[in-house]
Specification:
With about 190 residues, this protein is an alpha/beta fold. It has seven helices and seven strands. Strands 1, 2, 3, 4, 5, 6 and 7 form a seven-stranded mixed β-sheet that branches.
């Protein structure tokens, strides 16, 4: 039996440009409120025991809040959302629901970055997803580039505007010149 779905709260993590050191935008993260504390709600999206439709509903709820706030405040930076390719499969209603949410909220699609988050989709699916959202005006990012989930095939298929480097690369760079050289050598 699954626990009752929570009311999620969007939290915003800065998207720092490794070359300029400036904040280019913000990534929406799911949080649950426990008293005065906010905790990650990521397990709602990764737990295999939670039905796919519940995950889609929570994801749509979170995006709706984020788009509404961003549109109301008219922030100049972009807003980035995670989109597992499995959520955007051609037969999945979330594929068009995201674009409908953008339109209904008044959010400018040119301020949106879609982060493709998993390697489960094949190259053709990734390419179709990237093409779909680009036509609407959004940019594409590959999340966790440099981790085991990031494949060169996804980069070639999606031709992303952004490569989000895996945090472990930066942590390793503190003690390894080779890791520093790799980070600074990535130009896309």
């Amino acid at each position: 039996m699954n626990p009752a779905a929570p009311q999620l709260i969007p939290a915003y993590q800065p998207f720092v440009n490794v070359y300029s050191g400036l904040i280019d935008g913000y990534e929406v993260l799911a949080r649950e409120r426990y008293g005065q504390e906010l905790r990650s709600a990521g397990y709602w999206f990764t737990d295999a025991n939670i039905p796919h439709q519940t995950k889609l509903n929570l994801d749509q709820q979170l995006r709706e809040q984020a788009f509404s706030l961003w549109s109301t405040e008219q922030y100049p930076e972009f807003l980035s959302i995670n989109l597992p390719p499995s959520y955007a499969a051609a037969d999945d209603p979330s594929h068009s629901a995201l674009l409908q949410q953008l339109e209904q909220s008044g959010f400018d699609p040119e301020q949106l970055v879609i982060e493709l988050t998993e390697a489960a989709a094949n190259s053709d699916q990734v390419q179709a997803i990237a093409r779909h959202y680009r036509r609407a005006g959004a940019q594409i990012a590959i999340d966790d580039f440099g981790s085991e989930n990031s494949q060169i095939e996804r980069v070639l298929a999606s031709r992303p505007n952004w490569l989000k480097l895996d945090m472990r690369l930066f942590q390793s760079a503190r003690s390894s010149q080779l890791h520093k050289d790799v980070i600074h050598g990535i130009r896309y």
